Amino acid sequence: xxxxxxxxxxxxxxxxxxxxxxxxxxxxxxxxxxxxxxxxxxxxxxxxxxxxxxxxxxxxxxxxxxxxxxxxxxxxxxxxxxxxxxxxxxxxxxxxxxxxxxxxxxxxxxxxxxxxxxxxxxxxxxxxxxxxxxxxxxxxxxxxxxxxxxxxxxxxxxxxxxxxxxxxxxxxxxxxxxxxxxxxxxxxxxxxxxxxxxxxx
Length: 201
Hints:
Elements (H helix, E strand, L loop, with lengths): L13 E10 L4 H11 L7 E3 L6 E9 L5 H15 L5 E11 L2 E7 L1 H18 L13 E7 L5 H11 L6 E5 L1 E10 L2 E11 L3
Antiparallel strand pairs: 1-3, 1-8, 2-6, 4-5, 4-7, 5-6, 8-9
Helix pairs in contact: 2-3
């Protein structure tokens, strides 16, 4: 066994498909907190997420090459109609935890996040009845560092616990959802924005 670091993962790379996200480009308080946390993360074991890479995954729309641009347009139109009934809401960040080996924030109120997800999911299914929606039952979360090796859940939990004293409550207003084309790149993600869906408009 190599004691110098973890056994490196070889995650699948390249385009993954189309997804619904919440993104945080303008959340300056969240950016500041995340930058502070980055300084306490051991990059031998974890790859910190840049501030412009922070996101919350709401749902999967379709795998790559399994829907057309016209279908995506129709899904977006259905989502705009549905989200007129979803007013903007405040999302709270105040608890770090182990996310299956990653480190991230568990956000609240979970029921508002799930309500938005359900509206977007209904819009997706109205156009793609067999859409490969995500089956995860995990709590809504925003990852701040991904594991670079295998079997790092215990270390992620210990790191999150150690950094908990650095965490102060941050509130972020969520006023839109984003349709993206998602791509895996090494120990993180990159995405291309397709369209934005305003809430309550």
